[in-house]
């Protein structure tokens, strides 16, 4: 039995402001830092000791991993990072206010962009102030792989190679794996693990800073569909808040 722990970063400055973030590299808010530390404490209290951490290339996920591992006395853990764990690229919506976007385009279009499986927002222009074109952290990424917008389906497709090539080998070696990533890159992974349908996934939201633990069998299928949050009560309220963003 392998153990996988998923952790969405703590609240970011742009989560707090209600802005579409995607690949824009924002930091944690003070509340988000507290959430990350608490996430680490929850791990420690549950007796879960990751052997390795995987993060995206975005500051908010890296900070969350550091703060959580610091709180659990595990700052020394080896870390691996990849753009494949980045948040879904939110295209031309990056930097826009969620509530204003909902008002301007209506509930249906807003939810289509936010939660449909295969409808991406319009692409972002390279000269947009919130574009990542020219960001040195993606310098080695072939230009045809560099997204200008993504739907969840695109995220599943770019995340799965990392799951199979980097995370599964760690699990196969008997390591407990911590993945610190984002609302939508983790929705993509949970969709895969739980075998959630393309329509059903629209209703799944991931709260910030609360570890979600999966015990996996020899085929990397969850022992319990949906895994278990280390603070189920807090997760319930926080999931509701994510679902209601923009309202
Ligand atoms: C949020 C997710 O990503 O937003 O990009 O705005 O997890 O990095 O804060 P995260 C963003 P929603 O898809 O839930 O609106």
TrEMBL record:
InterPro entries with a match to the protein in the record: His_Pase_superF_clade-1, His_PPase_superfam, PG/BPGM_mutase_AS, Phosphogly_mut1
Pfam families in UniProt: His_Phos_1
Entry annotation: catalytic residues: 9 (tele-phosphohistidine intermediate), 87 (proton donor/acceptor)
Pathway: Carbohydrate degradation; glycolysis; pyruvate from D-glyceraldehyde 3-phosphate: step 3/5
Enzyme Commission designation: 5.4.2.11
UniProt-recorded Gene Ontology molecular function terms: phosphoglycerate mutase activity
Keywords: Gluconeogenesis, Glycolysis, Isomerase
GO biological process: gluconeogenesis; glycolytic process
Reactions catalysed: (2R)-2-phosphoglycerate = (2R)-3-phosphoglycerate
Residues annotated as site: Transition state stabilizer: 182
Top EC class of this enzyme: isomerase
UniProt binding sites for substrate: 8-15, 21-22, 60, 87-90, 98, 114-115, 183-184
Domain of life: Bacteria
Entry keyword NAD: no
PANTHER family, sorted: PHOSPHOGLYCERATE MUTASE
Protein family per UniProt: Belongs to the phosphoglycerate mutase family. BPG-dependent PGAM subfamily.
UniProt function note: Catalyzes the interconversion of 2-phosphoglycerate and 3-phosphoglycerate.
Alphabetized HAMAP family for the sequence: PGAM_GpmA (MF_01039)
Protein name: 2,3-bisphosphoglycerate-dependent phosphoglycerate mutase
């Amino acid at each position: 039995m392998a153990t996988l722990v998923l952790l969405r970063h703590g609240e970011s400055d742009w989560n707090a402001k209600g802005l579409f973030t995607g690949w824009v590299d924002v930091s944690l808010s003070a509340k988000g830092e507290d959430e990350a530390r608490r996430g680490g404490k929850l791990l420690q209290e549950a007796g879960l000791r990751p052997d390795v951490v995987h993060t995206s290339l975005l500051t908010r996920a890296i900070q969350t991993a550091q703060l959580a591992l610091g709180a659990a006395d595990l700052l020394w853990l080896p870390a691996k990072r990849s753009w494949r764990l980045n948040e879904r690229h939110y295209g031309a919506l990056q930097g826009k206010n969620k509530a204003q976007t909902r008002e301007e385009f209506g509930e249906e279009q807003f939810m289509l962009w936010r939660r449909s499986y295969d409808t991406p927002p319009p692409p972002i222009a390279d000269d947009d102030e919130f574009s990542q074109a020219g960001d040195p952290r993606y310098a080695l990424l072939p230009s045809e792989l560099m997204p200008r917008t993504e739907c969840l389906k695109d995220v599943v497709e770019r995340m799965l190679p990392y799951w199979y090539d980097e995370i599964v080998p760690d699990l196969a070696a008997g390591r407990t794996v911590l993945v610190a990533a984002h609302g939508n890159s983790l929705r993509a992974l949970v969709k895969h693990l739980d075998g959630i349908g393309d329509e059903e996934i629209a209703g799944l939201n991931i709260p910030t800073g609360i570890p979600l633990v999966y015990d996996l069998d020899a085929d990397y299928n969850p022992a319990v569909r949906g895994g278990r949050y280390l603070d189920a009560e807090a997760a319930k309220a926080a999931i509701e808040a994510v679902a209601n963003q923009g309202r």
